[in-house]
């Protein structure tokens, strides 16, 4: 049921949202998260961020994460779109959308999807700094903690 | 034979995106393959100098050092993921 | 800083999202919630939902709610748009958008805004049922409980 | 004088959207005004038959039965809100 895409071009959040609602009247709320490239990293300006990924495994991982959300919450739809390639500060990276009859399910599923995606989808960020050489972004222990919240919830 | 893929700084340190390798007898797990690559050459020694910083997948599913390997497997090595 | 609007026409979620990002590179994530008219109420089909509101107080209440979110979380932007008048099943009612450097702030502020809005903004829903007379929607005790969660958090 | 607004089913039961009323001496709070409207006519008795189901605002801020009223206030009566 979920829509999962890995792509280079920007996504159209309004169009994806309309697609979730199209032809149905059982949706009461749509939760959404859009991740965006920040212009600084550790206080230093960045020129660009390039996302490398593992074709094949990425789609598989995103599909599994979306299926887990659909197993945990009653969703009428779920969309996950993640970009790869070179992005500039201010550009959207990732879109998560969930549709449910009830707002809490949509909001919780949205938070779950972005938390799991950050620790389970094979993407790697490479930053081109304004000063100094490029660098690979290191994983956050905070992201592991955020993802681990869901291990003991809703099971 | 196993197909081995490298991503992010592991790809840079290995100097390649992928390779196909016969699995010698005795290399039966992800951990065994890491040990083999560490000993093979300077690139492998550098890339796998800190195995705790390396993550792996076998046939596009996350794996651990104990995950068994079979002929024909696709094995990938990469740093902890940073998407989203 | 917040954008607050009460209007009859539909809103353009994509355009509102783009407006929050326009010209800035300090946003890391945008949280969003869209409330939608469901086609049934208590298991019975509805033909339409009409939202009555208290002009003047509505704008004041939404502005106060948005200001509270901006006081509780570090937000770079916040948009609340609520429609009034007659809406059909499947039509969007309300849009909440929050922009922050960090995803958890955006997600939490979005949930807070919709919870508070449901109990503190002077709107009243009137449903035209497919069978039987029209009826005023009664307030949910669940909405009070959801709003009350925030009384003891983040203060 | 106070301007009094009615919304949703309170508006229907009162048969009007608003009215301007002189505040008699002795009516100094929202609760006092409710008692006055209950006693005034059949519409008021019906609309305010269950005061626990009625919410109020004074000058566009939520109020309680104890909220004081002053000359020139805008007072609104309505059911619990159901937006969002």
Give your account of this protein's structure:
Chain A is α+β, with helices and mostly antiparallel strands and 155 residues long. Chain A is 33% helix and 34% strand. Chain A is globular. Chain B is globular and about 35 Å long. In chain B, strand 3 and strand 4 form a beta hairpin. Chain B is built from three helices and five strands. The interface between A and C is medium-sized, with 35 and 35 residues.
Secondary-structure topology with pairs:
The complex is a heterotetramer, with two copies of chain A (155 residues) and two copies of chain B (84 residues).
Chain A: E1 3-7, H1 13-21, E2 29-36, E3 40-41, E4 44-53, H2 57-72, E5 77-83, E6 85-87, E7 92-100, H3 103-120, E8 123-129, E9 135-136, H4 141-148
Chain B: E1 2-6, H1 8-14, E2 18-21, H2 30-40, H3 42-47, E3 55-58, E4 61-63, E5 74-78
Parallel strand pairs in B: 1-5
Antiparallel strand pairs in B: 1-2, 3-4, 3-5
Q: Can I get a quick summary?
A:
With 155 residues, chain A is of the alpha+beta class. Chain A has helices at residues 13-21, 57-72, 103-120, 141-148, and strands at 3-7, 29-36, 40-41, 44-53, 77-83, 85-87, 92-100, 123-129, 135-136. In chain A, helix 2 runs antiparallel to helix 3 (103-120) and helix 3 (103-120) packs across helix 4.
If interface size is counted as residues with C-beta under 8 Å from the partner's C-beta, which chains form the largest one? Answer: A-C, 35 and 35 residues
Number of DSSP strands of chain A? 9
- Main beta-sheet annotation of chain B: 5 strands, mixed
Instruction: Quickly give the structural class of chain B.
Output: alpha+beta
Main sheet of chain A, how many strands, which sense, barrel? 5 strands, antiparallel
Q: Number of DSSP helices of chain B? A: 3
What's the number of helices of chain A? Answer: 4
Low-confidence stretches of chain B: none
Number of strands of chain B: 5
CATH superfamily of chain B: Beta-grasp domain
Shape of chain B: globular
Question: What is the level-2 CATH architecture name of chain B?
Answer: Roll
Q: How do the helices and strands follow one another from N- to C-terminus of chain B?
A: EHEHHEEE
Number of structural units classed as domains of chain B: 1
| Termini separation of chain A | 21 Å
Question: How confident overall, as mean pLDDT of chain B?
Answer: 97
- The residue ranges of chain A in which pLDDT falls below 50 over 5 or more consecutive positions are none
Strand content of chain B: 25-35%
């Amino acid at each position: 049921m979920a829509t999962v895409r890995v792509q280079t071009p920007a996504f159209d959040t309004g169009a994806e949202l309309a697609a979730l609602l199209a032809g149905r009247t059982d949706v009461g709320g749509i939760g959404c998260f859009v991740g965006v490239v920040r212009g600084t990293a550790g206080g230093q300006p960045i020129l660009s961020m390039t996302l490398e990924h593992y074709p094949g495994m990425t789609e598989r991982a995103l599909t599994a994460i979306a299926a887990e959300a659909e197993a945990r919450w009653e969703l009428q739809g779920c969309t996950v779109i993640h970009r790869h390639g070179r992005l500039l500060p201010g550009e959207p990276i990732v879109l998560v959308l969930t549709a449910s009859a009830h707002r809490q399910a949509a909001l919780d599923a949205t938070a779950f999807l972005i938390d799991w995606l950050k620790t389970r989808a094979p993407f790697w960020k490479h930053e081109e700094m304004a000063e100094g050489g490029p660098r690979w972004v290191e994983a956050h222990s905070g992201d592991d903690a955020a993802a681990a919240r869901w291990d003991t919830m809703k099971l | 034979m196993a197909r081995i893929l490298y991503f992010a700084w592991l790809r840079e340190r290995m100097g390649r995106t992928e390779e196909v390798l016969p699995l010698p007898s005795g290399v039966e797990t992800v951990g065994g393959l890491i040990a083999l690559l560490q000993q093979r050459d300077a690139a492998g020694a550098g890339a796998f100098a800190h195995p705790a910083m390396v993550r792996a997948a076998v046939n596009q599913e996350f794996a651990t050092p104990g995950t068994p390997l079979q002929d024909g497997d696709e094995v990938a090595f990469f740093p902890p993921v940073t998407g989203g």
